[in-house]
Every structure is written in C-alpha cells, then in structure tokens.
C-alpha cells in the first residue's frame, strides 16, 4: 500500500486472516461498495508482544481510563481489554470489538470494521468509547454490517438485520 492510498479517506477494515473470513470480507466489501463509501482492508491478526497487542504497525495498550492516539499508537484504557490466547478482548465479539476500534482510529473517516477469528463483526466509530461499538453482528450479517459502516460515515439510519425464521416455528 502506498502512502497516498493509506491517506485517502476510507473506512478501515481489520480482518483476522482466518480462511473462513474470506467470504465474510467479500460480503462486508459488497455492502460498503453498494453504499458508495471507499474502504481499505488490512490484516487484523493480533500478536502478543511485551504486554501489548500488535495490529500490523499499530500498538494497542491498556492504560488508565482514556483513549489516546499518537503517531500510529492507539491506547485503550477501558479497563476491560485483555489478552487471551493471542486475541485481544474476551467474550462474544471481544476480538472484533478491539479490531473495529483500532480500525476506526486508523480511518480518516473515523469508522472501522473488525472481524475476529470466530467471524464476529463489529462496526465502531472513533469517538465512541472502546467498549461500545456502533453495531455488532455475526458472520451471517456481514453484508448488512458493510452497509451500516458506510451509513455511519454518511449519517443515515442503519439497515435492519434480516429476521431469521426460528426452525421450531417454521
């Protein structure tokens, strides 16, 4: 990626490189494209290094109760971020939430999408608290999540998730 591409306004998508995420990523990209909002995808694999996690060239550290961004470093001080088995966060969507927050901090449009190894997807805005994404969903919601990331940039209401039939009541 060239310097110009990195600085072009875009929603940033940090996606864990799990093979299962390729289809999810295509669906997210389709949702963003259908709304006409530019995006760029970066590897969202998280490695643990001396108490910090590393997303490519960005460091995410936990420090006292605030968010700070300086020179590519994103500090998250929500007191809830932790490192377990090489992935930041815990619980349902934990890794996706941290990836999305880091992506939002890296985006010149202040909107990021995170996809973790389990296929959980979060859309985050840089001005929201780290533990409060704008919207979260599952792998089956990938295209709608792409639409909603774009709509967060544009400032229009989110698309609703499709209602799934309950197999017991079908």
Please characterize this protein's 3D structure.
- This protein has 170 residues and is an alpha/beta fold.
- The protein has a 5-stranded mixed β-sheet with strand order 2-1-10-11-12. A 5-stranded mixed β-sheet has the order 3-4-5-7-6, covered by helices on one side.
- Helix 2 links the parallel strand 1 and strand 2.
- The chain is globular, with a radius of gyration of 15 Å.
- 41% of the residues are buried.
Q: In order across it, which strands form the biggest sheet?
A: 2-1-10-11-12
**If you average the pLDDT, what whole number results?**
75
- The dominant shape is globular
Name the structural class: alpha/beta
Main β sheet profile = 5 strands, mixed
Helix and strand succession?
Answer: HEHEEEEEEEEHEEEH
Number of strands: 12
Short description:
The protein has about 170 residues and is α/β, with parallel strands linked by helices. It has helices at about 5, 20-35, 95-105, 140-155; strands at about 10-15, 40-45, 45-50, 50-55, 60, 65-70, 75, 85, 85-90, 110-115, 120-125, 135.
Descriptive labels:
alpha/beta; five-stranded mixed beta sheet; 28% strand
List the helices and strands and how they pair.
Layout: H1 3-7, E1 11-15, H2 21-35, E2 39-43, E3 46-49, E4 52-55, E5 58-62, E6 67-70, E7 73-76, E8 83-84, E9 87-88, H3 94-106, E10 111-115, E11 121-125, E12 135-137, H4 142-154
Parallel strand pairs: 1-2, 1-10, 5-7
Antiparallel strand pairs: 3-4, 4-5, 6-7, 8-9, 10-11, 11-12
